[in-house]
């Protein structure tokens, strides 16, 4: 039977070689492995931790390598990264265990000849400890290595938000995000759910910003909680819940959720509009529509209509809605705490997104009734995908006006009617919300 380190190695190698999504690769591997809870937790910690710290790890590994890290065979580099992460960032693992287990691990690969190299490099790292560039010589390089954020992204955030807030974003990129859940008010109350979860040894805190929102600590696997199985709540970051709040859904509303999967916003909105209202949840992938179907079934929400529809193609058969939610595909730079590999995306690839986002927003606006609200949102921190898309939309659509988003509800970054949620300010995912009123 494979141990935790070998499984973590295989997941990391797959992510590196196939550009696999970390959460999907991890979930699949753990399901097959059938490990005990303690070992599964170790695998998760090793995979996510190593991914989060790649730049820091490679900098430290490079101090003791003759050839550039980028020219190292993938098997060797993956083992070195995994070992270095244990040595530098996992205090509870003895250095001897981290080194010895890494040597055993490399011997099980096609690069077993490198066992001596792995042993030597990791012994050096264990002896010398964490190394960083000089903070005074190159601020960009220092921040990049310390927080494992590519230099281009560090520079981009400094240019976009200023040095102070850029450092805040970068520092929180290594934090563990809070687990926010939305109470299913069709089945229970906030207080009843809190009591029930606490009986199952979950630490529960009430959110002081929105009603029917709880923060869970030490919950273990959420999916294994009976309250989750019974459909008493769904997991949804506060930022997404604030997006739903901004839309001002009321009983009886017809709402179009243009890019709905996996369905969290549709679930929250469905509870706000009651049985006489309807949420039309659209997506172009049947596999992702299944996520919405299973979630709606678990929560017993019968007022969600799920349909395969391309948000970029107008269909006059759909009719009109009182509210339209346009949560567009984005670069995801606001959720790198959850998906650490996102931080290593090429910024040039991201530049292609605003055109698609603008196109979807324009198309979505055609479904809105006069006097209705249109919400545009992303889970990224990038003005090109956020403010610039919305400014262009307003410029070319004089029958829409921007509405000040959630006044007096949450601390705001910057000025203007749009809402940027910042991890270091709001303790949420990085998120952007704009709200438009159709005036004619």
Could you characterize the architecture of this molecule?
Helix 4 crosses helix 5 (74-89). Strands 5, 6, 7, 8, 9, 10, 11 and 12 form an eight-stranded mixed sheet that branches. The chain has a four-stranded antiparallel sheet with strand order 2-3-1-4, sandwiched between helices. The chain has helices spanning 4-18, 22-33, 37-52, 54-62, 74-89, 95-107, 115-128, 139-147, 151-161, 163-172, 190-199, 226-229, 238-246, 264-273, 286-299, 347-350, 353-365, 387-396, 423-426; strands at 179-183, 203-206, 213-217, 233-235, 254-257, 278-283, 304-308, 321-327, 368-378, 400-403, 419-421, 431-438. The protein is an alpha/beta fold. The protein is globular. It contains 19 helices and twelve strands. It starts with a helix and ends with a strand. It is 46% helix and 15% strand.
């Amino acid at each position: 039977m494979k141990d935790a380190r070998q499984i973590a190695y295989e997941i990391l190698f797959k992510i590196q070689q196939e550009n696999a999504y970390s959460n999907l690769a991890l979930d699949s591997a753990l399901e097959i492995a059938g490990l005990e809870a303690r070992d599964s937790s170790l695998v998760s910690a090793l995979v996510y931790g190593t991914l989060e710290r790649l730049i820091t790890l490679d900098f430290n590994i490079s101090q003791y390598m003759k050839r550039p890290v980028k020219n190292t065979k993938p098997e060797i580099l993956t083992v070195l990264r995994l070992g270095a992460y244990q040595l530098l960032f996992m205090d509870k693992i003895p250095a001897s265990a981290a080194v010895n287990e890494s040597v055993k691990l490399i011997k099980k690969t096609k690069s077993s000849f490198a066992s001596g190299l792995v042993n030597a490099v990791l012994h050096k790292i264990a002896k010398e400890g964490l190394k960083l560039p000089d903070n005074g010589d190159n601020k960009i390089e220092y921040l990049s290595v310390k927080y494992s954020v590519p230099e281009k992204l560090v520079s981009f955030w400094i240019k976009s938000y200023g040095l102070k807030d850029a450092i805040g974003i970068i520092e929180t990129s290594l934090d563990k995000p809070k687990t926010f859940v939305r109470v299913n008010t069709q089945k229970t109350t906030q207080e009843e759910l809190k009591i029930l979860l606490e009986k199952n040894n979950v630490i529960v805190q009430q959110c002081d910003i929105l009603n029917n929102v709880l923060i869970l600590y030490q919950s273990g696997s959420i999916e294994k909680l009976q309250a989750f199985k019974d459909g008493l709540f769904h997991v949804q970051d506060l930022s997404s819940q604030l997006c739903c709040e901004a839309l001002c859904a009321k009983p009886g509303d017809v709402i179009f959720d243009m890019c709905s999967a996996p369905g969290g916003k549709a679930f929250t909105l469905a509870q706000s509009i009651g049985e006489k209202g309807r949420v039309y949840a659209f997506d172009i992938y049947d596999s992702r529509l299944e996520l919405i179907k299973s979630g709606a079934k678990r929560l017993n929400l019968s007022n969600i209509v799920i349909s395969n529809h391309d948000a970029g193609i107008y269909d006059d058969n759909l009719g009109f809605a009182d509210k339209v939610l346009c949560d567009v595909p984005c670069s995801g730079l606001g959720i790198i705490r959850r998906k650490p590999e996102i931080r290593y995306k090429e910024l040039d690839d991201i530049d292609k997104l605003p055109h698609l986002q603008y196109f979807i927003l324009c198309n979505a606006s055609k479904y809105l009734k006069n006097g209705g609200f249109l919400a545009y949102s992303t889970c990224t921190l990038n003005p090109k995908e956020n403010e610039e898309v919305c400014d262009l939309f307003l410029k070319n659509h004089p029958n829409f006006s921007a509405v000040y988003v959630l006044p007096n509800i949450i601390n705001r970054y910057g000025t203007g009617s749009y809402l940027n949620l910042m991890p270091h300010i709001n303790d949420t995912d990085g998120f952007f919300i704009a709200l438009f009123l159709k005036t004619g």
